């Protein structure tokens, strides 16, 4: 590549990430499209909404994206091809951008003086509100990685499509940009599902095994938390159960074309009526947080 120094090359991802101007927010990972991020994050809480419920809901959606983006980033240097490493890293960055805005909104609304970094790095495991689907390792099995990405992106896209009309301006803005990102995530996963499922006998076997392995996490995606129920009437949240029909329709189309079978496996049940939305997690989340939070906790307040 013979790009002159100072010349902008739109095909160079690394140059795009490193460039800033006086008008740019250097925190490029926000990815919100806001002209004034801080002003939008500080938007008033919609009338009739309990700030604690709004903060909890933002944490739910933000933690889903944060934890899963970390798991996807583990594929860098381990994916089957360099092109797939870049694709998975870009998907992880999209989710990280969504997470940063949502966690920043939660921190502002709860009024505890915590920003997105404090919420990401200094919360204990039981304070996270993500679904269990985001937590386990793919164990370097690309079939399992593709299966989980297909389920996660299909579900989250259906949610964000409905959240574009949220009464909360931050949720609506994240959803407005997020649907474009997640449409690509779902398409990427669907194309690989077709390629593996309708490929060789071995690729079909491994893709089906990956799907079987993550299927027990699906049931939790469509349970409605108490905070979500209270936010329905003021038009802030959407009922995840409303996304089930779209999720099933998309999955049936993709799995049928890929000659794969919808797993007949029981859902992973809640523990005493509590699951990820209530802070009850699998052992895998502890391993994620140990990696993600380790440096910040060893050197609190450090900058670089």
TrEMBL record:
Residues 12-23 have a biased composition (Polar residues). Pfam families: PaaA_PaaC. GO terms for biological process: phenylacetate catabolic process. InterPro entries: Aromatic_CoA_ox/epox, Ferritin-like, Ferritin-like_SF, PaaA_PaaC, PaaC. GO terms for cellular component: cytosol. Residues 1-28 are annotated as: Disordered. Residues 1-10 have a biased composition (Basic and acidic residues). PANTHER family: 1,2-PHENYLACETYL-COA EPOXIDASE, SUBUNIT C, PHENYLACETIC ACID DEGRADATION PROTEIN PAA. This is Ring-1,2-phenylacetyl-CoA epoxidase subunit PaaC. It comes from Pseudonocardia kunmingensis.
């Amino acid at each position: 590549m013979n790009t002159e120094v100072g010349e902008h090359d739109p095909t160079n991802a690394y140059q795009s990430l490193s460039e800033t101007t006086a008008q740019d927010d250097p925190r490029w990972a926000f990815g919100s499209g806001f002209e004034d991020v801080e002003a939008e994050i500080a938007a008033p809480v919609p009338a009739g909404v309990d700030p604690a419920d709004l903060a909890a809901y933002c944490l739910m959606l933000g933690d889903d994206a944060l934890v899963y983006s970390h798991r996807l980033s583990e594929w860098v240097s381990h994916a089957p091809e360099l092109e797939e490493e870049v694709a998975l890293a870009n998907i992880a960055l999209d989710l990280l951008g969504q997470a940063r805005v949502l966690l920043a909104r939660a921190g502002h609304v709860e009024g505890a003086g915590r920003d997105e970094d404090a919420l990401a790095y200094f919360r204990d495991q039981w304070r996270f509100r993500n679904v269990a689907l985001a937590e386990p390792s793919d164990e370097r099995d690309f079939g399992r990685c593709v299966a989980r990405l297909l389920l996660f992106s299909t579900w989250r896209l259906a949610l964000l499509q409905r959240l574009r009309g949220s009464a909360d301006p931050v949720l609506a803005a994240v959803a407005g940009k997020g649907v474009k990102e997640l449409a690509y995530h779902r398409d990427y996963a669907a194309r690989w599902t077709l390629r593996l499922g309708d490929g060789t006998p071995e690729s079909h076997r491994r893709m089906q095994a990956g799907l079987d392995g993550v299927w027990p996490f699906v049931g939790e995606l469509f349970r409605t938390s108490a905070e979500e129920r209270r936010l329905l009437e003021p038009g802030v949240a959407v009922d995840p159960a409303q996304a089930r029909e779209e999720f099933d329709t998309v999955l049936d189309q993709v799995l049928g074309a890929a000659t794969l079978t919808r797993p007949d496996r029981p859902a992973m049940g809640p523990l005493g009526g509590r699951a990820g939305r209530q802070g009850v997690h699998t052992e895998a989340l502890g391993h994620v947080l140990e990696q993600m939070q380790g440096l910040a906790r060893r050197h609190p307040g450090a900058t670089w």
